[in-house]
Amino acid sequence: MASNTILITGATSGFGLSTARLFASKGWDVVVTSRRKKEITAVAKELEAKHGVKATPLVFDVRDLKLIRSLQAKKAELFDVDVLVNNAGLALGTETLQEGDPEEWDVVIDTNVKGLLYVTRAVLPNMLKRGRGHIVNIGSTAGHWTYKGGAVYCASKHAVKAIHEALRLDIHGSGVRVSSIDAGLVETNFSVTRFRGDREKAKKVYEGLTPLSPDDIADAIWWTVSRPPHVNIHEIILMPTDQASVRDVHRRAQA
């Protein structure tokens, strides 16, 4: 019996890496993507060595439509997968709209929105042809609530929510499933990137509470994908027990 295959974008760290490791541990073949060749090649080698599965690295930026099409033409089999996890995404800065950098806005929107669309477009026709498959979009609580300094990032994740819901309608009746995993505070490199490498500032985001971990998100993805074929988990919103919304976070006094 052929192995199941999952394609995960942005798989060198955080949600993507944890998801790749979990699915590989379950015997799934894995296609992992990143802009960074050295790091993603190391991830693929680790997965093969530890779990004995086939792990294939793909080097591309999800914003690069021409490169995605080129890879699709040359390596079509790598886009013919059972599950796609649209994980690649980021935030840059917390400035107000009037203070923000439009060039950074382009990076956020092109990655979080257009990148998700490009990779989905590359993978979805094969799923529809087979009459089965599963697309898992990584959304955010920022796609449900907004906050000061988050206009562009929140807009991008609201867009992901809209794309997810519209895609569900577009393919209704095809046998292909679509799910969204929308997390709150998860301790990853996300905040380091958002604060442009300032690790001390990033660390303060998680002080006084117990945040989610990337493994928690991977576990939610696995549970979603492993439901019986007649079950479609439309959306999961998960936050730490210490968080009630994007703005309401309980922080304990530091010893």
Characterization of this structure:
With 255 residues, this protein is α/β, with parallel strands linked by helices. It has a single domain, classed as Rossmann fold, CATH 3.40.50.720. It is built from 8 helices and 7 strands; from the N terminus they run βαβαβαβαβαβαααβ. The protein has a 7-stranded parallel beta sheet, with helices on both faces. Helix 1 crosses helix 8 and helix 4 packs parallel to helix 5. The model has no long low-confidence stretch (mean pLDDT 96).
The side-by-side strand order for the widest beta sheet comes to 3-2-1-4-5-6-7
Strand coverage percent? 5-15%
User: From the structure provided, what is the oligomeric state, counting identical versus distinct chains?
Assistant: single chain
Q: Name the CATH architecture.
A: 3-Layer(aba) Sandwich
In CATH's first tier, which class applies?
Answer: Alpha Beta
Task: Count structural domains.
Answer: 1
Summarize the structure.
The chain is an alpha/beta fold. The protein contains 8 helices and 7 strands, in the order E-H-E-H-E-H-E-H-E-H-E-H-H-H-E. It has one domain: NAD(P)-binding Rossmann-like Domain (Rossmann fold, 3-Layer(aba) Sandwich).
